[in-house]
Write a structure and sequence with these properties.
Elements lengths: L3 H4 L1 H20 L6 H12 L3 E2 H8 L3 H13 L3 E5 L7 E5 L1 H21 L5 H22 L18
Helix pairs in contact: 2-6, 3-6, 4-5
Length: 162
């Protein structure tokens, strides 16, 4: 019998995300990449020219941690720093051609992992799942953005736990 905890949406979302990362990690392990390395490659693929501070924010790590990650990836020939044209104190981060090739392989592995994970769903259910999840994501983004006109304010104050 399934417990209430196993059906709680918060636990389900967290467990699905964790299991997807674990399945993906296992599949990319043969490429010799750590999770932090594939995250850096993915983020810089999506935002070429990001600064080290922006990368740290995207990865939700401290700036010195991001700096060490970039140093190691630069030494491997996967990331290059270029001075910002407007501010010479700022370096912009870009993937090398080798890292672009790795990113293409990561994307194929990611697509296969998602397809395998969603295989029990029909095409219509996949679309519905994506649509519903996107709506929840937009709602959470609005809840976290104080300037959002869609921000929902709780009818009753939520008691702080700290």
């Amino acid at each position: 019998m399934i417990s209430d905890d196993e059906r709680h949406i918060g636990f389900l979302i967290s467990d699905v995300a964790r299991l997807m990362r674990t399945a993906f990690d296992r599949r990319v392990r043969k490429l010799g990449l750590t999770r932090s390395q594939w995250l850096v490659i993915n983020r810089l693929h999506r935002r070429p020219g990001a600064t080290q501070s922006e990368l740290a924010d995207m990865l939700e790590v401290e700036k010195p941690t991001a700096g060490r990650m970039v140093d190691r990836m630069e030494a491997k020939g996967w990331v290059k720093r270029r001075a910002d044209g407007a501010d010479r104190r700022v370096n912009r981060l870009y993937l090398t051609n080798e890292a672009d090739l790795i990113q293409r392989r990561l994307a194929r592995i990611s697509d296969r992992t998602i397809d395998d994970a969603l295989s029990p769903l029909s095409p219509e259910e996949r679309d519905q799942f994506s649509d519903l999840t996107a709506r929840v994501k937009r709602q959470l983004q609005a809840m976290l953005d104080p300037a959002s006109p869609q921000r929902v304010v709780a009818a009753e104050p939520v008691e702080e736990l700290v």
